[in-house]
Design a protein that fits this description.
The structure holds two protein chains of two kinds.
Chain A: H1 2-7, H2 31-41, H3 43-60, H4 62-65, H5 103-139, H6 141-156, H7 159-172, H8 174-180, H9 186-212, H10 216-223, H11 228-239, H12 241-264, H13 278-288, H14 294-322
Chain B: H1 2-31, H2 33-40, H3 42-45, H4 48-58, H5 63-80, H6 94-128, H7 133-147, H8 150-169, H9 189-223, H10 226-233, H11 238-268, H12 270-275, H13 281-290, H14 294-322
Helix pairs in contact in B: 1-14, 6-7, 6-9, 6-11, 6-13, 7-9, 8-9, 9-11, 11-14, 13-14
Classes of the chains: A mainly alpha, B mainly alpha.
Chain lengths: ~325, ~325
């Protein structure tokens, strides 16, 4: 809504409600409050935020919400009374997997791991990306050139190929494996995804900083004798907080999807140690297709779609909220 | 314009060398070709003399200077057509790579032909009445499209059209794996098309989403520009304003996007190819990767990176050609 109003101020259609968070009538609202209001008015984003909060509460309270332990069978299998690959029924709402475990509980445990990977990776990529992107955008010059060239190529290559090759490289360097742990550990995965994921963030922040540094208030700060680092940390970055938040949101969904893609192809965390992730559950569902165990395919897949949908909507809403004039960067 | 083209072309050549060198080092490190060779030929691995000979002929020396020398050995072989044979099975690489490349281009172009018209129409449809129901619907649909990861849509489609359909109606509606039924000989476009429907859908979902969003943003941008207001105030009919002035200008960034998109096809369909067992570049990559087959992976990477660089160049040229303002700087 809001984005449209800014873009289409010439001829607004009659049936549109006027959003009083924009315009001169309500100058009393601070920019932060205005952004919050715009976010709430983005209906899909607001609903998604509620749904995501519920999912997170549900997942964090797994001792209460999950019905079975992560590797627990729903009951002891006996001859003529199997517990494997059962369609949904009252003991297992989402059915059971090939080991007789409750899929509903396992989705909760998997979401725990996936969300954790997503969050840690996103924080790492945003820290690194903001640092490099901010520096490149502010200083320009060769650093900026290199960053743009490298990210150009990187963004054009298929993500899976980059991940698989970087994974292979990290695996074969001894001192790296000493820090990162085994290739099947969650720590390794988080570091791998961070190493690959910061570049997208860096580009975003670079664009934002480049735009901001031409503004009058930065010029004023410079005229008053502020040092580069003061301009960077007191002016440019605080004014980019909105964009950084947007980047963080999309980094979470990017990391969760990357984890799932890697797991799907067998490059993910190790399932043997009594843990699972959404990616591993979806990987298992590949095997459930030929015999037609639809619940093993539909529930993890749909849950994953809902999760990324919520985060994507929140990111979209945040983007509109922090920058209503924002015109999508095409290249 | 000519100077611009020449300058860009001159830039692309060093880029290609640097990129292939980086790829060479990355792949050498990631696949460890010597270890893969030893694994594939356990008997030869016991003979240090033969191993040393393999190192010498393929330029697999250790250390950074070894990598640099090895790169030039590889480059010479690659350019002169003396490609290294694959580690697994010691076969020439090009014949299989060629088949995979052709299959992937076929699938990718079909997906592009499906997704560009649909995506652009949706974007235009949304931008014409911004803020209305149709706009919200297209935007929401695009975000849903982004959120549906290809491997999820692929297995759900497989389950529905292959397995469940067969359960309900006796036989599957669409084939769910391969390019032809097993044992099929020769070329049969109609049959092949049937096998390509599901992979094309999977690939198209996300591209339709992104095309519709870009088209909408680009068209809205133009619709609110000053020159369009001028055109309107001159009294030109709305239809003419839209077709002659708005759409033509709105297409400029889309052409760039499409060029980049087509350049990324060659390596970008891995997921749907893998799920549907489609014998393309993606499956080739996954197989070569699991064998640590450096001689197979290197030409593969060269093809996909050159395709990306080439289409980047074409995108720049197209942009400069369509929008003269770009050429000045």
């Amino acid at each position: 809504m809001t984005e449209f109003q800014e873009l289409n101020h010439v001829d607004p259609p009659a049936d549109l409600h006027h959003d009083d968070s924009i315009g001169v009538l309500q100058t009393s609202l601070s920019p932060k409050r205005m952004a919050a209001k715009r976010f709430v008015n983005h209906r899909a984003a607001f609903v998604s935020a509620i749904v995501l909060t519920m999912i997170i509460i549900f997942v964090v309270l797994s001792p209460i919400t999950a019905r079975y332990g992560i590797n627990e069978s729903i009951f002891k299998a006996e001859a003529g009374h199997p517990n494997q690959n059962l369609a949904p029924f009252n003991l297992a709402w989402f059915g059971t997997d090939s080991n007789g475990r409750d899929l509903y509980s396992r989705i909760i445990y998997g979401a725990q791991v996936s969300l954790m990977i997503g969050l840690f990776t996103a924080i790492g990529s945003v820290l690194l990306g903001t640092l490099v992107g901010g520096l490149a955008g502010y200083k320009g010059g060769w650093l900026d050139d290199i960053l743009m060239r490298v990210t150009d190529i990187y963004l054009a290559l298929p993500l899976l190929v980059v991940l698989v090759i970087v994974r292979g490289m990290l695996k074969n360097v001894d001192w790296v494996t000493a820090i990162m742990g085994d290739t099947s550990s969650v720590r390794f995965l988080v570091i791998l995804l961070t190493v690959v994921g910061w570049m997208g963030v860096a580009r975003l922040i670079r664009g934002q900083v480049k735009q901001l540094k031409e503004r009058e208030f930065i010029e004023a700060a410079r005229a008053l004798g502020a040092s580069s680092s003061r301009i960077m940390f007191r002016h440019l970055l605080p004014n980019s907080v909105g964009q950084i938040m947007v980047a963080l949101t999309f980094a979470v969904v990017g990391a969760i999807s990357a984890e799932a893609t890697l797991s799907f192809f067998g490059f993910g965390p190790d399932a043997g140690s009594g843990m699972t992730s959404l990616g591993l559950l979806i990987r298992d569902s590949k095997k459930a297709v030929p015999p037609g165990y639809w619940w093993l395919v539909v529930f993890p897949g749909v849950f994953f779609i809902i999760l990324s949908l919520c985060i994507n909507f929140i990111g979209d809403g945040l983007r509109d909220a922090v920058d209503p004039k924002m015109q999508q960067e095409v290249k | 314009m000519l100077r611009f083209i020449v300058r860009r072309l001159l830039w692309a050549i060093p880029t290609l060398f640097i990129v292939t060198f980086v790829v060479y080092c990355a792949l050498r490190l990631a696949t460890n070709p010597l270890a893969s060779y030893a694994r594939a030929n356990p008997r030869v691995a016991k003979d240090p003399e033969k191993m040393a000979q393999y190192v010498e002929t393929n330029g697999l020396w250790p250390g950074f200077s070894g990598y640099v020398r090895g790169y030039f050995v590889w480059l010479k072989g690659f350019v002169t057509g003396n490609w290294q044979v694959s580690i697994k099975g010691s076969r020439p690489v090009w014949p299989n790579l060629k088949i995979a490349l052709v299959n992937t281009i076929r699938l990718g172009l079909l997906a592009v032909m499906v997704s560009i018209p649909i995506g652009l129409s949706l974007g235009i449809f949304a931008a014409l009445k911004p803020g209305r129901l149709r706009d919200t619907a297209v935007n929401t649909g695009a975000i849903i499209g982004f959120s549906v990861q290809p491997f999820i849509s692929a297995i759900i489609l497989q389950l529905f059209f292959g397995v469940q359909w067969a359960k309900w109606f006796g036989e599957p509606l669409l084939p769910t794996s391969g390019l032809y039924p097993p044992g099929h000989q020769g070329f049969d476009p109609v049959l092949m098309l049937k096998y390509m429907i599901l992979p094309v859908i999977v690939v198209s979902i996300q591209s339709i989403a992104s095309y519709s969003r870009y088209m909408r943003a680009s068209l809205l941008d133009v619709l609110n520009s000053d020159y369009l207001r001028t055109a309107r105030s001159k009294g030109i009919s709305e239809r003419r304003v839209l077709v002659k002035h708005a759409l033509r200008n709105a297409m400029i960034p889309i052409v760039t996007l499409a060029a980049l998109d087509i350049g990324a096809i060659v390596g970008g369909l891995i997921i749907s190819e893998a799920v549907f067992d489609y014998p393309g570049m993606g499956v080739f990559f996954l197989n070569a990767q699991s064998n640590g087959d450096f001689p197979e992976l290197m030409p593969w990477m060269v093809i996909i990176t050159s395709s990306v660089i080439l289409f980047n160049l074409l995108a720049d040229l197209a942009y400069a050609w369509l929008d003269p303002r770009i050429r000045l700087d």
